[in-house]
Amino acid sequence: MPIxxxxxxxxxxxxxxxxxxxxxxxxxxxxxxxxxxYRKEVLRQQMMVRRxxxxxxxxxxxxxxxxxxxxxxxxxxLLRAEGLDALPKYLADRIGPxxxxx
Length: 102
What we know:
Elements: H1 6-14, H2 17-20, H3 31-70, H4 73-82, H5 89-95
């Protein structure tokens, strides 16, 4: 396969990187591409904030429900009898003094 005449000249000018990535070309960064990238990042972060808020609401609901359940002595007795008296420390702290089953 013959070498195109422009290849040796471009290799002298650009170096060996032209051989490694022949189909890649440097794209120019335009203001519209920067605005698009910025908007995409803003949307990504907004979605992350929404997911975090939703997760926090769920956690508050679970903590409230556990607080009510641990106020019932029969429930606590049942947990002990079934060997389910372990609770993650974070949840135990969130539900207050009734958080410790044992």
